[in-house]
Q: What sequence folds into this?
């Protein structure tokens, strides 16, 4: 049996905000990305935006949590260029607690069983910066 994931259905659109300098071989374009969150579904491929399904089923109402952050390097920047899907909670109180804690700098996510799970927070890198933690209610769709 395939592993099942809750997959965040996203659309991203990036555009150049500053073109690379023609006289600098190391320079690169600066970009900005706009994100649209279209919903959640159950899937067998985690791709970039999937988390293990746990006790979530198609038709469940859940709170999804994700982060949008900027990244870059010495040669250019990507404003809002990355999205990290953090997880889902069926219990809105736990989801709200996660939202508050993550916005306060926590690197733990509490699942609906009350277990604290250490998460990777890529927005704490040298060139990265957090734009925001986002929380939204979705009804989980079945497999695509």
A:
């Amino acid at each position: 049996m395939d592993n099942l994931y809750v997959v965040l259905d996203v659309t991203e659109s990036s555009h150049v905000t500053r073109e690379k300098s023609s006289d600098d071989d190391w320079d690169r374009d600066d970009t900005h990305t706009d994100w649209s969150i279209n919903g959640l579904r159950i899937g067998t491929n985690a791709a970039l935006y999937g988390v293990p399904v746990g006790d979530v089923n198609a038709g469940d109402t859940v709170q999804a949590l994700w982060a949008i952050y900027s990244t870059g390097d010495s040669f250019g920047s990507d404003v809002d260029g990355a999205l990290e899907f953090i997880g889902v909670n069926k219990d809105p109180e736990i989801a709200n607690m996660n939202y508050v804690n993550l916005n306060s700098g926590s690197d733990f996510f509490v699942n609906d069983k009350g277990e604290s799970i250490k998460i990777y927070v890529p927005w704490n890198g040298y060139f990265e910066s957090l734009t925001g933690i986002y929380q939204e209610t979705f009804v989980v769709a079945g497999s695509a």
